Amino acid sequence: MNFIITATLDAIKQLYNEEVAESAINIQETRKEFEGQVTIVVFPITKISKKSPEQTAQALGEYLVENVDKVTAFNVVKGFLNLSIAESYFLNQFNQEILSPEFGVFAPNGKKVMVEYSSPNTNKPLHLGHVRNNLLGYSVAELLKAYGYDVTKVNLVNDRGIHICKSMLAWQKWGNGETPESSGLKGDHLVGKYYVIFDKEYKKEIEVLKAGGQTEEEAKKNAPLIKEAQIMLQQWEAGDEAVVSLWKTMNGWVYDGFAVTYNNLGVDFDKFYYESNTYLLGKDTVDEGLEKGVFFKKEDGSVWIDLTADGLDQKLVLRADGTSVYITQDLGTAKMKFDDFGMEESIYVVGNEQDYHFKVLFLILEKLGKSWAKGLYHLSYGMVDLPNGKMKSREGTVVDADELIADMIDTAQEKTEDLGKINDFSEAEKAELYKNIGLGALKYFLLKVEPKKRLLFDPNESIDFQGNTGPFIQYTHARIKSLLGKAGYQFAVSSDQFSGISEVELEMIMLLAKYPSEVEIAAKAHSPASLANYLYELAKLFNKFYHEVPPIVKTEEGDAKQFRLNLSKKTADIIHAGMLILGITSPERM
After folding, report:
1. Is the pTM of this model over 0.85?
2. pLDDT tens digits for range 203-228
3. Cα torsion angle, 316, 322, 327, 331, sign
4. Domain 401-581's class?
5. Distance between CA atoms of residues 435 and 408, nearest Å
6. How far is 377 from 392, CA to CA, in rounded Å?
7. Does domain 2-85 fall into CATH 1.10.287.130?
8. CB contact set of 463 (below 8 Å; sequence gap of 6+)
């Protein structure tokens, strides 16, 4: 609709002898209760016209109808000028732009971006919170890729520390040599089992010590199990052969288990980093900060940065004994990632409980003069709750990702079979369909909400073939594919000459035309939510079109039929492409 802006600038020049910048012209889609497709907000122009908003809008409307062929009529509502655009314009836009294979495809922009997501601990399986993280990270990476970026997906695995030693120690004490093969458990589930066992036994020891007169804080520090775990961590850091061997074995079990879950979720990574290789990084950065006067050393030898002038606090970056804290290794890892990939932007997909940490991290790197620090971005997201309450991992009541995926597929099977439309499917086709619907429901439900918002995930609500759900959009795609098959669809551009496009068909063209801008908006916001909701609006509008226009397969007029089939095909293509960005498969049949 750039021609509207150009024509309005001409109108202002002719009517009021003034030249204004393009940015002064505010156009938007006309609200559904008024006639027209495009609305000009007139209020800013009254400063030039020196007339009321209604008089200004009237004068502009008359000029545009008289001088612009594509503008056929206008109406004024207070300070808003609603324009009706010629049907031929929309037909031409649809045939020449929207039907082009290049429509919605962004050329490479030459910029590199890294998206770091998942970042699990290797002492337990992935849970519902990890699911949101993985789906969000993957989708943002795909969005940026679609927008033209060269994207690298990274997973920084937390494979060291006291939590890992807890699982290792419990397995040593109570495992009796159990393995994934001997137990029939996925490796990550087996290791998680011993993390829970450690916690239960540790609590027993705490109660015994409390009964002997110690405070809870003293008991937590003095319990034999936690002391043994701390010794094991020291042995690992010292390179003890037996401890390192057990660590490698158990972490190997976990990685095999994670690989299955990642595959089932449909997420992938280009590069894995491991904290066991990065936890000593950052000490050089601390030395650099001391030299530059960014950090200061206290009397006990610990190193700090004072961020009180920036509205934060003083932050420890190196302990008095010379050992790292989390921020130290994060400083070093950030530098290592930039050295490895040289990206313009680096996105950390991490829960909102780490908001403060990333504020501090990014600010320190800026103060250290790192040119790439401005490109760091924390994609913060809220917790996921279930109807029956929050998740708790240490007690073993976590909402396990594998069980959640299996439950979603089972629910998809149950609801699909109730519809009774897949009797001619083979067993393999049914299994694939149930997986696509179940995972489509899960992914769409978690991605349609803005990342920063905490959300309540209801599995039953997510698998519904009506409403703002993944299955509804998938079903719309399958419906279009069925329609095209019955019509024996072949691509051809319909004539621009036929008339009689309905209101809903104009709406369809206008909504389809928005797809590239929706990808751009979502990519710039690092949020798949707006794209997800756009796809729902598109699917909803197609169903309205499907029920309102004459049956497409039986439409006799050649151009009308071809146009409507093209409209249907392009809708299916955009649903397919948009859903893939969300990581969701759109079945051909349902």
Report:
1. yes
2. 999 999 999 999 999 999 999 999 99
3. positive
4. mainly alpha
5. 8
6. 28
7. no
8. 408, 411, 412, 415, 437, 438, 441, 469, 471
